[in-house]
Write a structure and sequence with these properties.
The chain contains 15 helices and 13 strands. By secondary structure, the chain is an alpha/beta fold. The strands form four sheets. Strands 7-10-11-5-12-13 form a six-stranded mixed beta sheet, sandwiched between helices. Strands 4-3-6 form a three-stranded antiparallel beta sheet. Helix 3 packs across helix 4 and helix 14 (370-399) runs antiparallel to helix 15.
């Protein structure tokens, strides 16, 4: 909210504004000139962030075309020189000078963005289930009655003002803090990794590659086995940087290294607390591309609206009194919905004091409880996911029909899955009957 207020303020500000930021929406809405500092060079673009992306792509395409032509010319001139060129005439001297200029030319920097699949550990039928969570500090209620069953492929964003309890909620889900009420149930196959706001303590004398290898020598991805060195390359640590000591890295590079270590753990539930802090736009794009292929669950606390729009499909927003409200879609969808609701609120005169209690008790619409309503909304997706898992296991049972040990494990998993599916179906039918009954009462 503060960022959006600042955007509106700067839109009417009569003076000049110079800012350094990785907030892409802020750049788009505030700036009309962009200076890009890239590998020791500064490029100027008289446009906003969206226009900058287009102009940068055009510039890089032109540089790539010019570089291809220069390489072709250099190869021909080099062959001419190897045949024994002699600087006897002015024309030959000019030819030699051109060869030397081509040889010593400054080559355009290549984009370091890469396409890759993600590392992930198999996730079973039961994931993470939060039931009636509540947490307070003294008289301050952070959250209450929070229940949610995280589904495979969930992309959850958590938003709210500073200090409202977003990080505390993550720590409760991770088991790092105990709730005042409620419980968190974690499936046996769940492997969580936590990218916290503060980097973990690391030996400053340790080399980058050794820090990553201490986590894993390699990870399995959809593309096959990827070594620690190759993952470093994918996260913009080239061969030279891999053998640099951690103490030599900048703050942003240390943040990127910590992110890489978190991903090298090959989690199937990835918990990100303010992941965009101190990460440059190039690294953010690598992370966002990585999450595109991530098959597990992602839960992100962030104030970066672009990141939330890019990576999240469901938001939980902290509201007054410790209420956490669910919204479908990304951040922009959430803001539109909030604005629409604020416009719809009727401006009714206050009820007389002696009639206030009567009005409240007789006008309240009967609905499912907050907890039941949330479960009712999420159950269809959970059931669909369980059915998909059941079909996949059925296919594996046919595949391993002759492998007794593997077959027994699959049959047991299928039985557990079917029991879970039946329980969830019964619960959904119960909630649907309750909702229908309340509707008929109205």
């Amino acid at each position: 909210e503060m960022t959006e207020w600042l955007e509106e303020h700067l839109a009417d500000y009569p003076g000049a504004v110079v800012l350094v930021t990785h907030d892409r929406y802020f750049l788009d809405r505030v700036s009309n000139h962009i200076f890009e500092l890239d590998r020791g060079r500064i490029y100027r673009y008289e446009t906003d962030y969206t226009g900058y992306l287009e102009l940068k792509a055009e510039r890089e395409a032109m540089e790539a075309t010019a570089e291809r032509k220069a390489r072709t010319l250099y190869r021909k001139d080099r062959e001419w020189m190897l045949r024994g060129a002699r600087a006897r005439s002015t024309k030959q001297k000019a030819h030699i000078r051109r060869f030397e200029q081509l040889r010593d030319r400054e080559k355009p920097a290549e984009s370091r963005q890469v396409e890759m699949s993600s590392a992930v550990t198999r996730l079973g039928g039961r994931t993470v289930e939060a039931e009636g969570l509540a947490k307070s500090y003294g008289e301050k209620v952070l959250f209450r009655d929070f229940s949610y069953i995280f589904l495979k492929g969930d992309r959850i964003g958590i938003v709210g003002p500073n200090g409202c309890g977003k990080t505390t909620l993550l720590r409760v889900l991770l088991g790092l803090e105990k709730p005042d009420a409620g419980s968190v149930t974690v499936g046996q196959t769940v492997k969580m990794s936590y990218f916290a706001q503060e980097n973990e303590a690391a030996d400053p004398a340790l080399r980058v590659i050794d820090y990553i290898r201490d986590t894993a020598e390699y990870v399995r991805t959809a593309d096959g086995i990827v070594t620690a060195s190759a993952m470093c390359e994918r996260f913009l640590f080239d061969k030279t940087m891999q053998y640099a000591r951690i103490e030599k890295l900048s703050g942003g590079e240390k943040r990127r290294l910590y992110l890489l270590k978190t991903l090298m753990e090959a989690p199937n539930v990835l918990v990100l607390d303010e992941p965009t802090n101190d990460l440059d736009i190039e690294t953010l794009q690598v992370l966002e591309d990585y999450l595109d292929s991530f098959e597990g669950i992602v839960v992100s606390v962030s104030h970066d609206r672009y990141f939330l729009d890019r990576t999240c499909r469901r938001l939980f927003a902290f509201e007054e009194g410790g209420r956490i409200r669910q919204h479908e879609g990304g951040y922009s969808d959430y803001r539109l919905r909030v604005e629409e609701e604020s416009r719809k609120e009727p401006e009714e005169p206050a009820a007389a004091p002696e009639k206030a209690a009567y009005v409240r008790s007789h006008t309240k619409k009967k609905t499912l409880s907050f907890k039941d309503q949330r479960e009712y909304e999420t159950l269809p997706g959970e059931i669909e996911a369980l059915e998909a898992q059941s079909a996949a296991i059925a296919a594996q049972i046919e595949q391993y029909a002759t492998d007794a040990e593997k077959l027994a494990a699959l049959v047991q998993e299928q039985e557990e899955l079917q029991a879970r599916l039946e329980e969830r179906m019964e619960r959904w039918l119960t909630l649907e009957e309750m909702a229908e009954a309340l509707k008929n009462e109205d």
